[in-house]
Design brief:
Elements (H helix, E strand, L loop, with lengths): L32 H14 L3 H15 L5 E5 L5 H7 L7 E6 L2 H14 L5 E5 L11 E7 L7 H14 E12 L5 H17 L4 H11 L8 H11 L3 E8 L2 E7 L1
Length: about 250
């Protein structure tokens, strides 16, 4: 398995135009059926170095995954990460995908079935605000998910993950960040919006999505995420990816 290349299984034929209509009113962002249908295109055009980030996550997961243990993808969305991991991680590791959006899990199930994988992959409906289960895990991935959890519940989420990890297991955390320095914060956001424009999003789409996410996506500073990990009990933390206001962190129990 170790020589297999990372393959992202994306259904990019459905283009993201969720916020293209200037006439529609703006509601809080939701992972509903409309978003689920275009999510793979949305995330690939909205997250810098998305494919490379996924490759790095898969490589690090392979480093820590232990046979006859579980690997959890918390906030698994349409199973892109799980299917990329399937080609990289020991076949004796069982996968569990957790998400609170039924429409996302439906897409995930369709992609898993279409992939023809023989691995055990369970998809579980779970709301991080009300509690979820992690057990016998050597790896947990939490990619662009914690930022959607209300800050009041983030410590509990992290403790659940930590308690369900085996000794020397790892958490792979990817988050959008904010900065305490207002100059850096403004510059990084400006460059991020330039990135989205290069990927075909209009200024109207960028503005409307920003407004829709305002009360839903609440980023922490890098230091706050590191502090949360350390206070939870993780013995080692390291940044493995950084692009302006996006960051990947690996933490070892």
């Amino acid at each position: 398995m170790t020589d297999q290349p990372t393959r992202l299984v994306l259904h990019t034929h459905s283009r993201d135009e969720v916020f293209a209509d200037e006439r529609e009113s703006i509601a809080d962002f939701s992972f509903n059926s409309t978003v689920a249908n275009v999510f793979d295109d949305m995330v690939s055009r909205s997250v810098p170095f998305y494919s490379e980030m996924q490759r790095m996550v898969c490589e690090l997961a392979r480093d820590f995954a232990q046979p006859h243990s579980n690997l959890y993808d918390i906030g698994c969305s349409t199973a892109t990460t799980l299917l990329a991991l399937d080609h990289m991680v020991d076949s004796h590791v069982d996968f569990v995908g957790v998400d609170n959006a039924p429409e996302m899990l439906k897409k995930a199930a369709e992609k898993i079935e279409a992939s023809g994988t023989n691995r055990s992959i369970d998809l579980v409906t779970g709301d991080l605000h009300s509690g979820f289960v992690v057990q016998d895990a050597s790896v947990v991935t939490l990619l662009l998910t914690l930022q959607f959890v209300r800050p009041l519940f983030r410590e509990r989420v992290m403790k659940t993950i930590y308690q369900g990890l085996n000794e020397n297991g790892c958490l792979l955390l990817v988050e959008k960040l904010t900065s305490e320095d207002t100059t850096f914060n403004r510059l990084f956001i400006d460059h991020y919006y330039d990135f989205k424009r290069r990927n075909g999003y209009s200024s109207i789409e960028i503005s409307k999505k920003r407004e829709a996410l305002e009360n839903v996506l609440i980023p922490y500073r890098l230091e706050e995420n590191i502090q949360l990990l350390r206070e939870t009990g993780f013995k080692s933390t390291e940044v493995f990816f950084r692009w302006y206001n996006f960051c990947g962190i690996v933490a070892i129990k």
